[in-house]
Amino acid sequence: MTDIKLDETDGSHGGSRAVALTVNRWLDWTARAAVVVVFIAFALIGVAGIPRLLPLDSLHKLLVVAASIANVLFVSLVAATTITRLVPIKKSKSIEPRISALLGTFLCTTLALLPKAELGPVGSIVSTTLILVGTSLSFVVLRWLGKSFSILAEARRLVIEGPYRIVRHPLYLCEGIALVGVTLQVLSPLAILIAVAAVMVQWRRMINEEAILKEAFPEYRAYAANTPFLIPAKLRQSSVKNGDDR
Description:
With 246 residues, this protein is mostly helical. The chain is 72% helix and 2% strand.
């Protein structure tokens, strides 16, 4: 009787695990589908806006088209990478990291709804160049991150090579460069407020991601101890040196 009872319990546990695995897999693919739909929509909107910028009769228009193409490529890569990404081995279960991740991803898009500022030729070229550089570098970093990419605070595979040898959060750094450019184009008190809020949320997002990575990968602590958080070591040293000179 005891043996039979134990077998039934084991079978029950096995069935529960199978159900939980099925539910988790369904939730994972539902989340993937949502991300893919949203970012494909962003890509289509970007593509639809390019013909309006023609003909390319000025340097500024050329830069705007280049920045638009870079953005389309980046959001398309986000969608493609979401489909092919690995299953997470560790994820945050609390609500705050999820809210921070979603706000960090979409808060900056509200800047596109604000009226354009009058920057003049030089200001327009500078802001567009920042967007182009930041978005292009974001594409490169995301391509390197590959199947480890995630919007939420999740651990899939530890990436410490390439741009991740320079800083621990290169994608956020590159997106920050683009954010400065976008904020300049719609410069206003409201735009600055949104940009500051976005930076604060992204900072919290990085902290949340590091907490998960430390739990999932014991070697992450050694990597973090030898790799700058966000600002490359050479820039930090140059800044400190210039401060000492003054």
